[in-house]
Design brief:
single chain; alpha+beta; Alpha-Beta Plaits; eleven-stranded mixed beta sheet; 11 strands; 11% strand; elongated
């Protein structure tokens, strides 16, 4: 769940603010100003006096309104003289713990990083010589591709989206040198915190900036990499917090339609699904739920896999059959243990240099070459629909294959030389050939309207206020914060066709989301659909039983936009300010999404087969963790007790209980 990381500048005089943004040169002299060199918290005496009738400044409605009311009831005071803010206090404690600082707030010598993304130091002489200019409370509308970043939230040691934005604000002189050593001096607050690798077409930060320069947005963007954009900067009332004022959030999730194919009947989960249906006497219902995909793998085996196996020598064929449906991680461990010594094996390869792809899990060079070639040779790609808006990404992919310019991974990829491929053993070569055939078969799949409707039925189970303790980490069933409200969750009935892969677009609208929640909601709905599980398993997941739900790959998750309906009404009716509306930048946002988000998602999936790898691991991990997707329901699955961790092999799929639950939404 998003959390604040900074203090809120809530000075008086809100009602008299004129409508203004960076397109208007200068700032009205009639408005009270804050000196940019003023440390955060110096205006605490003014926090209790607000022009909003003395009733708490900007509450923004929803959760923000309740939070503002609770803060006014709290008789305690923090060390700045303002009301105690528990969220802020807990956030500061977590930050202190991560930074290992002393009680007096000074940095501890041990483990202190040499470089911090949260501090841009300047010589004292430069700070003293800098002209003091007024700063204003603003909302900064942003978009970004999360590839190559350790999430949105700024921290000391990791490269984050906010870290680059903070540096760009300083470079553009929107933040003074005196305040460049700590974002909290500018009351830095984010609206929705996104996980590592997650993208956002629309997000927001609120803070105090120097906005006298009418070209400030251009100067900020000039200092940013192309995969991060500032759409606009808008004046707000001084009490504004984009986190508290946000009413709800829209997210989109993109995934290949082949995710709806059932587990292979020879995989561990596939066998358990069939055994459970037979044991419970629901084979007919199970077959009906699978519909046209019931015999999909039977046809693939007969037409594409059997000819490969028939061409192999009996000894090689037996070894290949044994390893086809093995979990990659288990097979990799077995392969490592079979290495005769650390120096190498009988083939002369070092153990660590052995090809990782021997179990149909990760993308092979063959598949990468095949898909890259398909992209390069494509002369026409079509998109049936892209979440209700026109898109040019398919045409771009056909005419200009390759990674989007400016993305972090692209630059890193160019910097490293391609490793020389190792000579494969006959078994490994056959496994690669078979994997290529399986992946190609998946990409040929086209979801029927009936299959998409089944997925929609599963997504409908989320609508309303539910207890989502099983859809995040470190939350018990009794934790009130595990209850969240989902307003809608819709699968677009018109799939998107990109080259040889069909994609589905899912859009979810909710008040707020916890860490991994959206990805686990997708994981539950998709796994239930592909396994033909009864929909009751979704409602049962809200109960006290603690089960393991895999989080779908982060590659497909995109924050569309936050919503500020309540604040916007106040801004227009009472404050004389412009509403915060991402629709004003629709064309720029659409172009950005096409080039830096959609295109990247499509290309990376073709190159790395992320969704194939994810479901292959889930289907072939020999454990009862995911047997809730069978006819046995939750009773058939392994229950976890308390904050019990997960097997190391499943940390990537389930989430690690040791993670910070405040790291991101979705």
């Amino acid at each position: 769940m998003a959390a604040e990381n900074g203090t809120h500048d809530q000075t008086s005089g809100d009602a008299g603010l004129p409508s203004a943004n960076v397109s208007e040169a200068g700032v009205s002299a009639a408005n009270p100003v804050n000196s940019e060199a003023t440390p955060a918290g110096s205006d605490s005496k003014d926090r209790q006096s607000r022009s909003d009738g003395g009733r708490g400044g900007d509450r923004g409605g929803g959760r923000g309104q309740d939070r503002g009311r609770n803060k006014r009831k709290n008789a305690g005071k923090d060390n700045r003289g303002g009301p105690v803010n528990r969220r802020e206090r807990n956030g500061e404690w977590q930050e202190r713990k991560r930074r290992r600082v002393n009680e007096n707030g000074t940095a501890a010598a041990e483990g202190e990083p040499e470089h911090s993304y949260m501090s841009i130091p300047f010589p004292e002489a430069e700070i003293a010589a800098e002209e003091r200019r007024p700063k204003r409370k603003v909302a900064v509308l942003i978009g970004y591709s999360g590839t190559g970043y350790h999430g949105l939230q700024i921290n000391h040691k990791d490269k984050t989206v906010e870290g680059d934005i903070f540096a760009a604000l300083v470079a553009a002189k929107a933040i003074s040198k005196a305040n460049a050593d700590d974002p909290r001096k500018s009351s830095f607050v984010r609206c929705a915190r996104t996980d590592k690798g997650v993208h956002a077409a629309g997000n927001m930060i609120s803070l105090k900036l120097i906005i006298e320069d009418p070209d400030v947005v251009k100067k900020i963007n000039d200092a940013l990499p192309p995969q991060i954009r500032v759409w606009g900067i808008h004046r707000t009332n001084n009490a504004f917090s984009c986190y508290q004022a946000c009413d709800s959030r829209w997210y989109e999730y993109l995934m290949p339609s082949y995710c709806l194919l059932p587990p292979h009947p020879e995989s561990f989960l596939g066998k358990k699904v069939l055994e459970s249906a037979k044991e419970k006497g629901v084979e007919e219902d199970y077959a009906k739920r699978l519909g046209e995909v019931k015999d999909y793998w039977k046809e693939v085996e007969e037409n594409y896999i059997k000819p490969i196996l028939d061409s192999l020598e009996p000894r090689i064929r037996d070894a290949v059959i044994k390893r086809i449906h093995a979990s990659e991680k288990a097979a990799a461990a077995e392969e490592e243990s079979m290495a005769p010594n650390a120096a190498g094996d009988a083939s002369g390869e070092k153990a660590e240099d052995k090809p990782e792809d021997t179990t149909m899990m990760k993308a092979s060079d063959d598949v990468a070459e095949k898909t890259s070639s398909a992209t390069a040779k494509a002369t026409q790609s079509t998109i049936s629909a892209t979440a209700g808006e026109d898109s040019t990404v398919a045409a771009d992919l056909a005419s200009a294959p390759g990674e989007p310019e400016g993305t972090t991974t692209t630059e890193e990829g160019k910097a490293g030389a391609e490793p020389k491929p190792k000579e494969l053993s006959p078994v490994e070569a056959a496994l690669r050939q078979i994997k290529t055939a399986y992946v190609a078969a998946k990409r040929r799949y086209r979801a029927s309207p009936e299959r998409i409707a089944q997925l929609q039925q599963a997504l409908d189970q989320y609508v309303g206020t539910r207890n989502f303790h099983n859809y995040t980490i470190q939350k018990s069933h009794d934790d009130p914060s595990a209850k969240r409200t989902v307003k809608s969750f819709v699968a677009d009935p018109q799939p998107i066709q990109i080259n040889d892969t069909q994609w589905l677009s899912l859009k979810v609208h909710g008040q707020s989301f916890m860490m991994h929640q959206i990805r686990k909601m997708v994981g539950m709905a998709v796994l239930a659909t592909r396994c033909g599980a009864p929909l009751s398993v979704v409602s049962e997941s809200y109960g006290p039983a603690r089960i393991s739900i895999p989080k779908a790959p982060g590659l497909g998750l995109l924050l569309e936009r936050p919503v500020f309906d309540n604040y916007n009404r106040r801004a227009v009716d009472n404050l004389g300010l412009e509403p915060l509306d991402f629709g004003n930048y629709e064309r720029q946002i659409r172009e950005f999404k096409d080039h830096y988000i959609y295109r990247h998602i499509f290309e990376l999936e073709e190159k790395e087969n992320s969704f194939h790898s994810f479901f292959h691991q889930i289907d072939n991990f020999k454990s009862d963790y995911f047997l809730w997707a069978t006819a046995g329901g939750i009773d058939a699955a392994q229950k976890r007790v308390g904050m019990q961790g997960v097997p190391k092999e499943l940390e990537e799929e389930l989430g690690n209980e040791g993670e910070d639950p405040e790291e991101g939404d979705g």
